[in-house]
Specification:
Elements (H helix, E strand, L loop, with lengths): L7 E2 L73 H7 L6 H6 L8 H8 L4 E6 L16 E6 L21 E5 L5 E8 L4 E10 L11 H4 L10 E6 L11 H4 L22 E2 L29 H16 L4 E2 L2 E2 H5 L4 H12 L26 H7 L4 H10 L16 H16 L16 H6 L10 H9 L26 H11 L19 H11 L2
Parallel strand pairs: 1-6
Antiparallel strand pairs: 2-3, 2-8, 3-4, 4-5, 5-6, 6-7, 9-10
Helix pairs in contact: 13-15, 14-15
């Protein structure tokens, strides 16, 4: 699930998880779900990134409408099953993730998990805009952290004669606060393929009547004192909204599984921290700041986005000891974008079985490929860059959703409120119940660009294709219940399918069968009405 990458909150009594504000998605579309299991980067810097980003920022009042659902209120769609770990470990998978998780270790925190996975030379990359399973909650205020095995280094230090890591080294994990999930991937020499996993954990709050609240899930509290954990493999999550294969096996069953990274070249727009380019070429790590240049500089603008995002991150988390189980000092020393790019290229570029549709195109191109987004031109030209071409394909159901073309996807006013309440609760100056969920800071216009809500002027057909085709399309295994609805072939819908669609889109907020799942998007009431008129319901 790399940069697609991955995980979930499930607390169980009577098969139901008391997840509180965790906000998980739902099950299959047509049937009931099958059993499934001190430095310049710190706060106070003048530049918040809302000007001179080349991305048409709408300013400080770009907020959702009053009737837009509050973040994080969905019932869990996959039960928390402690026995699933035993089942997964009995398969004898040969990847490093399985070896670590099935070793008998009892992981009680993110830091213990990172240590237990046994990274040889880890890299740390954060993203402020994700199209992954957990992307709904991601911003610079609540970034998604990737910890991966470094795949390039000095010859003779665990790397081959070309300085490249071997497939057996391939391993990564992804985590974002807000859901009790960790996404994991590792190479299995037994099958010569990648295995994807979701580790699910619980906290003491899962066993309370109130369930886990925002302050339990988006603060350092989520990273320690786990009460229990289990793990699901990608094969266990098929036909649910947690299905890893939607992004990592996009060509359908019996095709290669791949790590994905949509901003895979300079300037890795939403990945941070990225340090200034070194004289003579290459990107550096270490140091205390980014000293980025505006995106109008075509040669060295790559650190501009990192400067903006790191400043916002530190404004909220500068007093936190760790993020994702990793000390902030280690994250700050990383190379972020270049490291995650090398990780993905090391796999895709070395595999003979990767079809052309999943190969990385030449540097500087940006259209017609699900992997690649030309972030350099995107920062300079905004929606007029190749981003616009690719977004048209998203709306037409021809490719998976994109990140926004903006460096900063948050609203000024909402961002300040999120930071203020977070720091006040952490210091004890405000009750925990008053903490504002970080996803509330994401600007409404950015949500549309990220395909979390449809465009206001979209037709009913465009709404259905745009919001549903990512999971309901013609490449699916036809035996899956969700394959009965193909959002790219709306002319073939029969009356029963129309009735089911009408039922699912009208389910109350938080219903685990409401469509689309919260993690995938939201249909505002105007969009529901437009679709119902089209369906004749």
């Amino acid at each position: 699930m790399v940069a697609g990458l991955w995980v979930t909150t499930l607390g169980c009594d009577d098969g139901q998880r008391r997840a509180g504000a965790a906000g998980l998605g739902e099950g299959p579309m047509v049937d009931e779900p099958e059993d499934a299991g001190e430095n310049e980067d710190e706060p106070g810097a003048d530049d918040t990134g809302t000007d001179d980003t080349g991305s048409d920022d709408d300013g400080g009042d770009d907020l959702p409408p009053d009737d837009f659902p509050e973040p994080g209120q969905q019932e869990p769609e996959v039960p928390f099953d402690l026995d699933k770990k035993t089942e997964v470990c009995a398969r004898g998978n040969g990847d490093r993730v399985a070896q670590a998780l099935c070793s008998g270790a009892n992981f009680t925190s993110m830091s213990a998990l990172v240590e237990g996975l046994g990274f040889h030379q880890p890299f740390f990359s954060m993203t402020a805009n994700s199209s992954s399973l957990v992307g709904r909650d991601v911003s610079a205020l609540n970034p998604r952290l990737i910890v991966g095995e470094t795949m390039q280094g000095a010859v003779g230090d665990g790397f081959d004669q070309h300085g490249q890591g071997t497939p057996e080294q391939m391993m990564a994990m992804g985590f974002v606060r807000g859901e009790q999930l960790v996404e994991l991937v590792g190479y299995d020499p037994n099958t010569d393929a990648l295995n994807f996993y979701l580790l699910m954990f619980e906290q003491a709050c899962n066993d309370t009547d109130e369930g886990c609240q925002t302050s339990d899930l988006v603060s350092p509290a989520i990273e320690s004192n786990w009460s229990r954990w289990t793990v699901y493999q990608d094969t266990d999550l098929v036909n649910t909204s947690l299905d890893c294969n939607v992004c990592h096996q996009p060509l359908g069953p019996n095709t290669p599984k791949v790590p994905r990274l949509q901003e895979i070249s300079n300037s890795w727009t939403h990945w941070f921290p990225v340090r200034p380019a070194q004289q003579g070429g290459g990107w550096s790590s270490g140091g205390t700041g980014t000293t980025g240049l505006p995106p109008t500089d075509p040669g060295n603008h790559g650190t501009r986005s990192s400067e903006v995002l790191w400043t916002q991150f530190m404004a909220m988390h500068g007093d936190d000891p760790t993020y994702g189980g990793v000390p902030l000092t280690q994250i700050q020393e990383s190379a972020a974008g270049p490291d995650i790019e090398t990780f993905v290229r090391a796999w895709v570029g070395s595999r003979e079985d990767i079809p052309d549709a999943l190969r990385l195109p030449a540097f500087g191109s940006g259209a017609g490929n699900d992997f690649f987004l030309d972030s350099a031109s995107m920062e300079r030209e905004g929606a007029a860059s190749s981003w616009g071409t690719e977004q048209a394909r998203v709306i037409a159901g021809e490719r998976l959703p994109l990140p926004s073309h903006r460096i900063d996807i948050t609203s000024d006013l909402a961002r300040e409120e999120v930071i203020e309440t977070y720091k006040a609760v952490q210091s004890g100056a405000m009750p925990a119940k008053d903490m504002v969920h970080p996803s509330a800071a994401i600007a409404y216009t950015a949500m549309s660009e990220m395909s979390l809500v449809p465009e206001q002027d979209a037709t009913a057909e465009q709404i259905l294709t745009h919001m549903c085709a990512r999971c309901h399309n013609g490449t699916l295994d036809p035996s899956l219940s969700r394959a009965r609805f193909d959002a790219t072939a709306l002319g073939e819908l029969d009356d029963l399918q129309k009735a089911v669609i009408a039922d699912r889109i009208q389910r109350h907020d938080g219903d685990k069968f409401q469509m689309p799942p919260r993690r995938s998007g939201t249909l505002p009431q105007w969009a529901v009405t437009r679709v119902l008129d089209y369906l004749g319901q």
